[in-house]
Write a structure and sequence with these properties.
The complex is a heterodimer of chains A (185) and B (211). The longest helix of chain A is centred in the middle third of the chain and has 21 residues. By secondary structure, chain A is mostly helical. About 8% of the residues of chain A have low confidence. Chain A contains 8 helices and 2 strands; from the N terminus they run ααααααββαα. Chain B has 211 residues and is mostly helical. Classes of the chains: A mainly alpha (185), B mainly alpha (211).
Chain lengths: 185, 211
């Protein structure tokens, strides 16, 4: 009985002549000995034969007419148009890119901030007299841009020199042009 | 290739090799040849009807589904690519529609207060036997077989019809229902075993009739 159960899975392959020779020999050996397997195999063969000879059905006479009528009612065929297919996705992608570029929520706006100056341990004194602003500008050869911080008043320059006064170094003095002219012979 | 497999290259209802192939016809139809579509309809309407009828057990519903299948082929002709056989494509459409109908019917049955099932409807069979007694026996046998097929789970029913009624090869069935080849073979075997159990009384009757 165990052999019969084991061989049941091969019945269709045996009837379809698609068993490999080794399994086929084994199947036939058991088939000769096992009446149950023989009976089942015979019945399965009959089922196959009956199903193959079932009466064939035919469509009704007006099948083609009805089909034609239905097609004429709605004759549009679904055509694959690659342009239409990709237009929507391309336009969506474009809109998405525009949104990301112009309304990027993660980016911070730095257009109105000044370039960072290295932090100095010296505190810059407050400007006391706004009208005293002179053209003391720290313009360097490399930097073409002059920022507002580069413009300093004379008081500022003095305060800066005082704060940075090094005892070992000679004192820096603001020399006026008039004094230079007077000191000349 | 098995004996049945050789037959299965040309499922029942197909015409001879002298005719243009299905793939040639659908290619012509895709280019606007309406006559090619008519030839495909002529070639496939009866085989599809038999497939769907054996699957659903109702001839009228089966014909409606075959109509719908051809309508979809007409509408979606550009979706067919020659990588697959036309028969595989059209049987896949018909099979999917039949399965949808089966699901719809199951839902309807759940909510319906009527107990009549479509399988209990009268089936009109073509008059092929001259002997009335044989004819009656044939009709009864057909009904009993159809009932046994209807009792199979749909996944077994589909493969057994495609294999033993329609004559497709295992490979073609695998392509149609998109299931691995080994699974198809296993399902066919199990369906046959189940049918031989369910129809065991019929084999005795057949023997009696033959004596």
């Amino acid at each position: 009985m165990g052999d019969c159960d084991r061989m049941k899975k091969h019945i269709s392959d045996y009837l379809d002549h698609s068993l490999d020779p080794t399994t086929k020999n084994e199947f036939e050996e058991i088939l000769d000995e096992d009446a149950s397997l023989k009976s089942i195999t015979s019945r399965v063969g009959q089922v196959k034969s009956i199903l193959g000879n079932l009466q064939s059905m035919h469509c009704s006479g007006d099948f083609n007419t009805r089909l034609r009528e239905r097609i004429h009612q709605n004759p549009k065929t679904t055509v694959k148009d690659p342009v239409k297919k990709y237009t929507l996705s391309v336009s969506f992608a474009a809109v998405l890119i525009l949104v990301v570029v112009f309304l990027n929520p993660f980016a911070t706006d730095k257009s109105d901030t000044l370039p960072q100056i290295p932090a100095s341990p010296i505190s810059t004194p407050q400007i006391k007299n706004q009208s005293n602003i002179q053209g003391v500008r720290n313009t360097t050869a490399n930097s073409g841009v002059q920022s507002a911080r580069d413009i300093k008043t004379i008081d500022e320059a003095k305060a800066y020199s005082d704060s940075t006064k090094d005892k070992s170094a000679p004192e820096l003095k603001h020399v006026d042009q008039k004094e230079i002219q007077e000191s000349r012979p | 290739m098995t004996a049945a497999g050789n037959e299965s290259q040309y499922p029942k209802g197909k015409e001879s090799d002298a005719q243009p192939t299905d793939e040639e016809l659908i290619a012509r139809f895709q280019q606007g040849d309406a006559y090619a579509f008519d030839l495909l309809v002529k070639r496939y309407k009866d085989p599809l009807l038999n497939f769907v009828y054996r699957f659903l057990g109702d001839l009228i519903e089966a014909e409606d589904i075959v109509q719908e299948t051809f309508y979809r082929v007409y509408k979606n002709k550009h979706y067919y690519k020659e990588v697959a056989k036309f028969s595989t494509w059209i049987y896949t459409i018909a099979g999917n529609l039949a399965k949808t109908e089966l699901r719809r019917r199951k839902r309807k049955r759940v909510f319906s207060i009527h107990k009549d099932t479509p399988t209990e409807k009268d089936i009109e069979l073509p008059d092929q036997n001259e002997d009335p007694e044989k004819e009656v026996n044939s009709v009864i046998t057909d009904k009993l077989i159809q009932k046994a097929i209807n009792n199979l789970p749909s996944k077994f029913r589909q493969v057994i019809i495609l294999r033993d009624v329609q004559g497709f090869s295992y490979e073609e069935i695998s392509s149609i229902i998109r299931v691995p080849l080994g699974t198809v073979k296993s399902r066919v075997n199990r369906a046959r075993l189940r049918l031989q159990e369910d129809l065991s009384f019929l084999f005795d009757d057949v023997k009696d009739l033959s004596t």
